[in-house]
Automatic annotation (TrEMBL):
It comes from the Bacteria. Keywords: Signal. InterPro entries: Phytase-like_dom, UCP031900. Residues 1-21 form the signal peptide. Residues 63-313 form the Phytase-like domain. It holds the Pfam family Phytase-like. This is Phytase-like domain-containing protein. The keyword NADP does not apply.
Length: 339
């Protein structure tokens, strides 16, 4: 009888909803200049607005941020880490609106379909994030898959729900799977379409595998890859063009990042999408292992580009949050060219 009672208690504990939220203390250092030792503010089509490096006393609690989505005109954010966590909070700003740090930060484990944290890194490696209406979409690498979580305002205790992956998992390379999920604005020519792009998984011609989510095999296309660059995230501009963040790693001192603008008209099934580089940086600038990008509108209606880095849990690397404005003339020129 005693064993039966203990067994029942143990079974009940296994299905209790978890409450794993952890408030995180974060320290930040402002970054006032993007190019080291220079007051220059213009970089390609972007103007540097400000940023900061940040860290938590417990690197095991907060590290390896891989994708971010900015909310409420730059006040709040939701991010994921490749160690299997949600990271949420508010961006602290100075009187001029420049970002200076993070407050009200929380870290939660991303729950599995069984409602539990993933038991190992190969299942927990979250690399891409998007918000589509009341749904949050997350792409995982290692065990390649896309899962949805609801509601979007509080996905932390939601169990994962599977989403059909249009690219066959056998085509996704190890440590080179889906790194971009981006939702096109409703008012753009792509009208809410969801696009995914792989990091380094390529077709026979060497182009990155990509697809429109929800169209199955009919939604497949590719993005031209220029080695040694790999895609690490993407976000749509208001007009439907896709900004693709790319990373170059050729040894510890030869690290770079760039942003390519793929026109909306180039994003279609069966196509090989390509577009111009609108900004590029190396270690002469305040960059690290740049993994995440988002695009949003501030209170004045300006288009803001946010970038984040993944420190890989290493004391040799940094967590960075950077903001740029897309220059109005560059935006207008690109919009006109796409018509």
């Amino acid at each position: 009888m005693k064993r039966t009672w203990l067994g029942a208690v143990f079974a009940a504990l296994l299905v209790l909803p978890p409450a794993y939220a952890e408030d995180v203390s974060i320290t930040a250092r402002s970054i006032e200049r993007f190019r080291i030792g220079s007051a220059e503010t213009h970089f390609g089509a972007l103007t540097f607005r400000g940023g900061f490096s940040y860290r938590s006393p417990s690197s095991r609690t907060l590290s390896s941020v891989s994708s971010i989505r900015i909310r409420d005109a730059g006040r709040r954010f939701l991010a994921v880490t490749d160690t299997g966590s949600w990271f949420a909070g508010r961006i602290r700003r100075d009187d001029d609106g420049r970002p200076t740090g993070v407050e009200n930060a929380e870290v939660w484990p991303i729950l599995s379909r069984a409602g539990r944290p993933q038991p190992r890194k190969g299942m927990a490696d979250a690399e891409a994030l998007a918000i589509a209406g009341d749904t949050v979409l997350v792409a995982f690498e290692g065990n390649d898959r896309i899962e949805r979580f609801r509601p979007a305002d509080a996905p932390f205790e939601a169990r994962a729900e599977p989403v059909a992956l249009p690219i066959p998992p056998r085509e996704l390379r190890g440590n080179g799977g889906i790194e971009t999920i981006a939702v096109a604005p409703r008012g753009s020519s792509l009208a809410g379409e969801i696009v995914i792009v792989s990091e380094r998984s390529v077709d026979a011609a060497g182009n990155l595998l990509a697809a429109f989510l929800g169209r199955g095999a009919k939604g497949l296309f590719t993005v031209r890859r220029e080695a040694p660059w790999s895609a690490t995230d993407g976000a749509f501009l208001p007009d439907g063009d896709l900004l693709l963040l790319e990373r170059r790693y050729e040894g510890f001192t030869r690290i770079g990042m760039r942003i390519r603008r793929l026109p909306a008209a180039a994003l279609k099934p069966g196509a090989v999408a390509d577009g111009p580089v609108i900004m590029e940086a190396d270690l002469g600038n305040e960059i690290d292992n740049m993994e995440g990008i988002d695009v949003w509108q501030d209170a004045e209606g300006r288009t803001v580009v946010s970038l984040v880095s993944d420190d890989n849990g290493s004391f040799l690397q940094r967590n960075l949050y950077l903001e740029f404005l897309l220059e109005a003339d560059a935006q207008a020129a690109a919009t006109g060219a796409s018509r």
